[in-house]
Amino acid sequence: MAPLLEVIDIKKSFGSLRALDGVTLSVESKKVSILIGPNGSGKTTLINVISGFYTPDSGRVIFDGKEITGLPPYELYDTGIARTFQIPNLFWKLTALENVQVAEKGNPGESFIRTLLRRSWAKEEARATEKAFRLLNLLGLSRVWDKQAVTLSGGQMKLLELGRVLMSGAKLVLLDEPISGVNPTLAHEIFGRILKLRDELGVTFLIVEHRLDIALTYVDTVTAMAFGKVVAGGKPELVMADPKVIEAYLGA
Ligand SMILES: Nc1ncnc2c1ncn2[C@@H]1O[C@H](COP(=O)(O)OP(=O)(O)O)[C@@H](O)[C@H]1O
Ligand SMILES: [Mg+2]
Fold it and tell me: pLDDT tens digits, residue range 21-43?
């Protein structure tokens, strides 16, 4: 099967600094992949290029067989690529359920005309609510469905942000440090939930994460970067034993 995402020879400079120096990688469908590498190796820049926040200087990004290089974030969102940020981006006064509901593409609430077609609107609304509850359930947030986002714990906020992204119908989810600042118990829970989402919804994940002690036990594949290049990729145990990867960390 063709990979869901292919990144081909991407270059991106900031002034004279080459943050991405010809990055090529592919992400298999329905797998959890992690992107590792020392600070400054280009991981966040790569996520920004894939999610359309930065335009690469050269190279191509192919998603689901279509070239998406240089498309703006909202168009990528429509094609099924979504990302989260290190600091969750929520509607703080809305409840957990509402936060997920309003994230749906073409949510009837967005359209005035649809509200005129009352009957179909009500049916849509019931279906969206059901889907939102199912996601909250998969994320372990069903008990706080009616709590305002601002009252949730840091870990719950991260999970809720993931729920919003999934409600939008994302096929590929890019996560930048999903367990940073989260205690170990919750960090394991978050990765456990990610695997559940992969298995039950068929979602593909590309994750940047520093905390390898926790993350490595959950992921299907690892891509290691150093100085804007990919230095190794494959199964976690092989990549972590690769001298080039060890050198990259020791040299940093
Ligand atoms: N918007 C920017 N402007 C200038 N330099 C940047 C910008 N974003 C990243 N960089 C630089 O690019 C390099 C790679 O950064 P980054 O992708 O954030 O690394 P990582 O996420 O692996 O720590 C770093 O040297 C960083 O300082
Ligand atoms: Mg980073």
Answer: 999 999 999 999 999 999 999 99
Q: What are phi and psi of 15, to 5 degrees?
A: 60, -125
Q: What residue owns the CA closest to ligand 1's atom 11? A: 19
* pTM of the complete model: 0.91
Q: Whose CA is nearest to atom 16 of ligand 1?
A: 42
Other C-beta atoms closer than 10 Å to the C-beta of 18 total 16
Ligand 1 centre and the CA of 25: distance in Å? 19
What pLDDT is recorded for position 120? 66
CA triple 72-74-80, angle to 5 deg:
105
- In this structure, the residues whose C-beta lies within 6 A of any atom of ligand 1 are 14, 17, 19, 37, 39-45
Cβ < 5 A residues, ion ligand 2? 44
* Domain ranges (residues) in the chain: 5-251
Residues 236, 61 contacting (CB under 8 angstroms): no
Q: Which CATH class is domain 5-251?
A: alpha beta
Q: How far is the CA of 213 from the centre of ligand 1 (A)?
A: 24
* Ligand 1 pocket test, candidate residues 35, 44, 46, 223, most atoms within 8 A of CB: 44
Q: How confident is the model at residue 111 (pLDDT cuts 50, 70, 90)?
A: low
Torsion, Cα 48 81 191 152, to 10 degrees, reads 90
Mean pLDDT (the chain, rounded): 91
